[in-house]
Amino acid sequence: MSEQDRIYAKPLGNLPAFAFDEDVARVFPDMIKRSVPGYTTIIAMTGMLASRYSRPGSNCYDLGCSLGASTLAMRQAIRTEGCRLVGVDNSQAMLEQCRRILDTDVHEIPVDLLCADITDVAIENASVVVLNFTLQFIPLEARDRLIETIAAGLSPGGVLVLSEKVLFADPHLNELNIELHHQFKRDNGYSDLEIAQKRSALEDVLIPETLDTHKQRIFGADFSSCDVWFQCFNFASLVAIK
Fold first, then answer.
1. In a 10 Å sphere around its CB, with 0-12 CB exposed, 13-18 middle and 19+ buried, how is residue 15 labelled?
2. Which of 30, 93, 151, 239 has CB 3.0 to 4.6 Å from 25, enough for a Cys bridge?
3. First to last CA, the chain
4. How many structural domains comprise the chain?
5. What CATH number does residue 116 fall under?
């Protein structure tokens, strides 16, 4: 069981940029469940989608796998013969904890964990690719190419699951959803100090975009269909079919 997230509970004079380091890895399950509305549902349904779209002998990728929640959901849901899971993250601290978690799971689908920048990873023979709250941390100028690489590596009929924090084009709705998200965090025990300090730490690290921008990028990479299947406040998940 993870520790409670108290990283931003005390005033930090020299506030460092947010990073997926050992401190975050230690509290990450608590942090993300208390910070992302609908997270548990998104993870569970990622497994369901993977079960539906996985193909025999194919690869299923979890890009930005962190502690492996999506990887584990897919591993437990997929019944297709000959599938292999590939989890990729650029944080060694997160991957070490991910491997410990996966080692406690009894399901037999093999899982490869790669410590790498996801923009450098070849996507090959894929039936399922998951980007759950990962693209938002990738530099804006690299995002088009990443989605194009995923599309090129997906077999026809394959699926991309993309979950992100999003912006709203309407300023009033954007501010409303930010305030609702902050209230969600308060209701989950975060103080105003914690909310403010984490928001500052994430500035210039997590760069959200509108749903329209995500859809345009996906269709520009020659996916045949794409739409939102889940949304709560300014967090949404899209499904795109090759």
1. middle
2. 93
3. 37
4. 1
5. 3.40.50.150
